[in-house]
Amino acid sequence: MRVGAWYRGGLLRALLTPPPARGPARLLSGEHGMAQGPASKDYSLPNTSWGRELRGLYEQYMERCKDEAWKRLPSFCDNSMFVGTIMDPTRKDRAAAPEMSMEPPKFTQPPRLFTRSIQGDGLGFEYVTFYNSDQQKAECLFQSGPFLEGAPGFVHGGAIATMIDNLMGTCAILVSGVVMTANLNINYKSPVPLGSTVVLKSQVDRLEGRKMFISCRVHSANQKTLHVEATSLFVKLDPNKNV
């Protein structure tokens, strides 16, 4: 797998950067329809845009969290805060991260996680992720907003792919540390109605050295409709090679 020197993806950047020090909330600009608010805001918590299905499933999953194996993962605009929160501080993944081969570009606004970049509750990606450390699996409750339309009345396939890659990447990071997507295969079985809630379930299928194979299935909230099946290959980055 070749990784271009131009790559400045959120998860890799976050893993290579120490978590920010606690202090006054940093405000993010809200220009051009992008998210704004304190960088420390946890977007995985319920808000007024959540429908009955998403709220009901959230309550069910929070009951699961009474078992210590399951936990709800926070979600921030600033991905370094997310990684800094979920990563075990005793792990050596940060120290083992590869060096950047060139200086990152300077932006007029701070980078932010793609799935948390749309301003306004309920307009884009409304989701919450849960992780089971014993079973090495992650599950996500996702409600799509009107800004994610593809074919009229249905969620854009790219938005579904984004959520799948996001969930499997989260699972991979929690298991192996600094990783990148090497391959992603998606089979769309049934279109996802815009505004509906779906459940994504991913799990680690096997490990082969630095390679991690993960699968994911997307079902309707009532589990009666299979919308998508996906498989992926993630690779743990070599600390001795620049990216």
Automatic annotation (TrEMBL):
Reactions that this protein is recorded to catalyse? (5Z,8Z,11Z,14Z)-eicosatetraenoyl-CoA + H2O = (5Z,8Z,11Z,14Z)-eicosatetraenoate + CoA + H(+); tetradecanoyl-CoA + H2O = tetradecanoate + CoA + H(+); octanoyl-CoA + H2O = octanoate + CoA + H(+); hexadecanoyl-CoA + H2O = hexadecanoate + CoA + H(+)
Q: What is its EC number?
A: 3.1.2.2
The listed locations are:
Cell projection, Ruffle membrane; Cytoplasm; Mitochondrion inner membrane; Mitochondrion intermembrane space
InterPro entries named in the record: HotDog_dom_sf (IPR029069), THEM4/THEM5_acyl-CoA_thioest (IPR052365), Thioestr_dom (IPR006683)
Q: Which family does it belong to?
A: Belongs to the THEM4/THEM5 thioesterase family.
Uppermost EC category: hydrolase
Originating species: Ornithorhynchus anatinus (Duckbill platypus)
For this entry, the protein name equals Acyl-coenzyme A thioesterase THEM4
